[in-house]
Amino acid sequence: MSPNFPELEQKAEEVRGRVALHPQDPVPEIVGVLEQLGLRVIVRPLGKDGPQGIYARRADFAAVLLNGTDYLPRFRFSGAHELGHHVLDHFEAHIDLDFSETTGKEKEANAFAASFLMPRRALWDRVANLGKKLTADQVRDLANEFIVSYDSMVNRLHNVQLLQGYQHRDALKAERASVLTDELRERRPAERWRLPTDYVHRALEAYGRYDISLDRLAELVEREAHEVAAILAAQHFLHAEDAA
Questions:
Q1: What is this structure's pTM?
Q2: Rounded to the nearest 5 degrees, what angle is found at the Cα of 213, between the Cα atoms of 219 and 234?
Q3: Better-scored residue on pLDDT, 85 or 237
Q4: pLDDT tens profile 200-214
Q5: Where in the chain is the domain with CATH 1.10.10.2910?
Q6: CATH class of the region 5-117
């Protein structure tokens, strides 16, 4: 059975109200929010391929284990997803390896997490001032404000009907790295040629998917890592852990 999305939106608003979150505000530090809601939270480095989150419930307590290895937007979504299992009364224990699973309860927890982290009303109010058709830069700014991944924000904007259909959604996903490609193609002034557009674009996409590190990206585009980091940071493309 398909999730009742309006009901899940309402539930997310209700839970935000329990921790006095303003309807327009991004969720602050997720562990503290979960603890305010009565969950025991454990954070451990479970590795890149480890579970993203585990939810366990007994008669007298509920606990969440989160993968501290995950980058911040994924870590926050994991916390909100496990909170979804809790407030939606999914009583059995859950080990979440991949949030793309399509079972009913996983879909419900994902929909709750998206609503909790990116409230519909907040997005509508912000987008009302941004023009008729959102650009990749505007989506990146929204993702940065709400501390979610770019793809999560694109999907959420699509689901709350703020994009112009599937083509707009797919175009935004394809454009994520394009704004950086030309800048990273530029070589040192003494050199007379530029790196191929497709080559740089693919390297950026691999970095965005966490397939390669910042150092490897810098090596591929033949720049210093600190220089590449500065370019990525200016476009809100730099992973949080690389900014440290």
A1: 0.74
A2: 85
A3: 85
A4: 888 998 898 888 999
A5: 5-117
A6: mainly alpha
